[in-house]
Amino acid sequence: MKPEELDYLSKLVRRTSGLVVTKEKVYLLESRLKPLATQKGFTTLSDMVASLRQREDPSLVTAVTEAMTTNETFFFRDKTPFEVAQEMVFPYLAQKYNRRGKARIWTAAASSGQEIYSIAILAKEMRNILGSLELELIGSDISRDVLEKAKAGIYSQFEVQRGLSAPRLVKNFERQGEQWRISPDLRAMCQFRYLNLLDDFRTMGTFDVIFCRNVLIYFDPETKKNVLERLAKLLPEDGLLFLGAAETVVGVTKVFQPVRGRRGLYARNPGLFEKNVAAA
Asked: Cβ contacts of residue 17 below 8 Å, gap of 6+?
């Protein structure tokens, strides 16, 4: 492809999704978009670019954006966030709501659902701690295709082997031929919505905990700051944010601060959260 075509695609993807395609990653534009061009009836990727430059058809722009989105995920990914949720966050929510009422948790890049279902599995295992506290779990993503997969809750043998122990698999999934489907009770705990983090997400409401893991790493500093500061507005003073292992708020914004000794966990007011945890 010509440099100006790659430059156009890079700017388009950045404008629509926040994804920064660096020079080292520019090869992804061709490898991921050539199949899309063929699927859409174009002879070459250059033909598709020419069509977009002439008129940015919304459906084609959406398809390009989704094709460039990274959807790598697996159950209980990185382990640490779920260990922190088990040891600190869920007991804190139980204490905060006196083991009844409703707490809201948002997975802001749900992909094909493994993260939010991991949270649901953990909540099920901790029912004796949570009491009658209801957890409203909401997952969102920029890709409608992966959201449909998440809603269905059907995974291959390879997918369930990534992060799930045999006991957890047997307890929480039903065998369907060569695939596994997450149990109806866990599917019922989870809602899924289409959402672009660059858009206004105030309609999502307020949350106690937000998981926004392995997303900001693809954004430029200004976009990271903007997203983080808007996320903070959806959380109460003791609200919590989980980021990916390679992500941080340090040097980006001061609306969140790290929670001491808990990698990947950030709070609007760490002192208030730590004080309340100690009192729990």
From this structure: 65, 68, 69, 142, 196, 198
